[in-house]
Every structure is written in C-alpha cells, then in structure tokens.
Amino acid sequence: MSKRHQTKPAGTGRSDRLPASRREVLLGGAAVASTALIGFGGGATLPRPALAKAPTAQTLKLGNFEITVVSDGHLMMPARLAAPDVPDAERNAALAQGGQSGGEMAKPPTNVTLIKTGDDVILIDAGSGPNFMPTAGKLSANLDAAGIDPDSITKVVFTHGHPDHLWGVLDDFEEEARFANATHLIGANEWDYWFSEDAEKGLPADRATFVPAARRRITAIEGKAQRIKAGDEIIPGLSVFDTPGHTQGHLSLQLTAGGDNLVVLGDALIHPIISFEHPDWRPAADHVPEQAVETRKKLLEKLVAEKSRVIGYHLPFPGIGRVEKKDGAYAYVAAG
Question: What is the predicted pLDDT for the residue at 201?
Fold first, then answer.
C-alpha cells in the first residue's frame, strides 16, 4: 500500500492546522461546536438512535458526460458571516428559509463535482483535507464509497484557493499530491493573487493564514500544475469563465452537451436564498465584495437566459438545480 493511501499517524499534523484560539474565532469554534452536537453532558452515556445514513454521492447525465456530486462533509460557520451587514432578523430568516440554522452557527455543505467522459475523469476542487474542520475533509472516504479510485482522476480543476476547495489536494501526510496521475489546473489570476506581495491585504487577521497555506499547497503541486484563463477548454464541451469577487481569480465552469448547459458555480453563488434573492448582500468570505455583487447579478441573468442547470459547492446537497426569475426576483429551484 502506497504511503499516500495510509492513515495519517497521530501527532503528524502540520502548522497549517490553525492554533486553537485563532481557529475557534475564524471557524466559529468548529471543533467545540461539533463536540457539542454529539455530546450529552453530565457524564451520562445515552444510547444513540439508529439514523439513516445521509447520501454522500449523486449522479446525473448530460449527453456523454456522467456527473457525480460527492460530499466533502460540511462546514461550521458563524451564521452572521453569511451577511454581516444585514440586520440579524433578516439574515436569520433567510438562513432558516434555506434550511440552515437561523441561530449562531450555519452548516453549509461542501459538494465536489466529478465529471467522467471518454478517458477523462475530472475533479472540480479537491475538498478540505484533514486539517481545516472536523466536519469536512470527507471527500476521499466518499470517493472510495462511490467506487472512484483517486488514481483514475486525470484532471483537477480549481475554482479558487480557499481552504475548503484546495487543502485536500495533498495526501493525509501533506507531502504528496492526493491525485497522483492528475494534471492540476488553476486560474492564472487566482495563482497570481495568492503569490502576490499584498495577498493578505484586506483579509481579516484570522484569515491571513490562508495565504501561506495556499502558497505551500500550490507549490507542492506545481510540477503537475497548469495555469488556465477564461475561455480555455478543459476538454471539448467543458470550459471556464471568470466569476471574480469571492476571490480575485475565481472561476466557474460550463459544461455543454447538445442544447443543454450545466454550470459548476464554485462559490460564485453559495446560499439558496441569500445568493439568489439577495445578490447584493455581502458575505464576509468575499475578498472583493462590490465585484462579487456585480458577478452574482450578471451570473444570475446568464443562468436564467441560458436555462442552465447548476451545481453549487455550498448549496444543499447535492447542490443541483436551476435559476428562475419572476417579477424581477431570482430563485434557486433544486432538482426534484
């Protein structure tokens, strides 16, 4: 068994795992919150009810393309970060309407898209890996459960370099590429941003750690990596286009087969209510908020006009649906 397929031994975590105090501020106390969700307190041990296992993969067809959405788990985030400038009551109502908590914490899912056609197996984003949040980093296990060998993946395309999209690119030892036989495709503008001298400018102090972490991972795969730009075709029928604002070089992907379109959104639209009904609200995770607002509005118009299906990284699993417009407002309609 190769080193990269072994279980990571205890005590081998790297410095990219955020210090406890900083991590709890940044991630809304993800480790504490996840413990609270499963703990009963008082020292008593109560029997757990039998629960049906939630689905972790779902497949659809588009022409000759087979598309599988595989869960990487979910994040634990302070709910206020979804729209920190919006009154609490409005924001919490939108979060609750979208199926997430209207309380202190939200649990956005992380949906990774895999596309098979001919000899190509293309992964869009690589998940969180083991060192971001305890509730995420499930991609490898769920790929295995779906019968997908990581060595079969021929290309990995990144929408952007945030931890929940990039950190899973390395194995559990964080030494070798997890997808050893794949070419890794990163937007040229995104690559340039993370390596720029002022990459940390404008980021909250607790997210400044994202910059060296992204640099280390991109450097680790540099020998397998290629820079791409808007308009580039990954394979016939699959191309990338600019959706900047969430990060400076954020890309989305469009898959076309016959008269049908499907857009893999990455984080261009991240919440089933807020991103669609309130595209002018500014999530805290957007690097360039005004640009992100403009991108959302243009993207929503495009999706309606082209009648595209969409897959959203943080939309309710499996994140597959369409955009509708009525009386000047947009709505996300999940696939039935």
Answer: 87
C-alpha span between 20 and 10 (Å, rounded):
17
Q: Which CATH number fits domain 56-334: 3.40.50.1820, 3.90.950.20, 3.60.15.10, 3.90.1150.10?
A: 3.60.15.10
Q: Give residue-wise pLDDT tens across range 250-265.
A: 999 999 998 899 999 9
**pLDDT by residue (tens digit) across 194-209?**
999 999 988 888 899 9
| Euclidean distance between CA atoms 185 and 15, whole angstroms | 26
- The closest alpha carbon to 157, from 132, 129, 121, belongs to 121
The identity of residue 241, as a single letter, is F
- What pTM was computed for the model? 0.85
3-state secondary structure string across the chain:
CCHHHCCCCCCCCCCCCCCHHHHHHHCCCHHHHHHHHHCCCCCCCCCCCCCCCCCCEEEEEECCEEEEEEEEEECCEEHHHHCCCCCHHHHHHHHHHCCCCCCCEECCEEEEEEEEECCEEEEECCCCCCCCCCCECCHHHHHHHCCCCHHHCCEEEECCCCHHHHHHHECCCCCCECCCCCEEEEEHHHHHHHCCCCCCCCCCHHHCCHHHHHHHHHHHCHHHEEEECCCCEEECCEEEEECCCCCCCCEEEEEEECCEEEEEEECCCCCCCHHHHCCCCCCCCCCCHHHHHHHHHHHHHHHHHHCCEEEECCCCCCCEEEEEEECCEEEEEECC
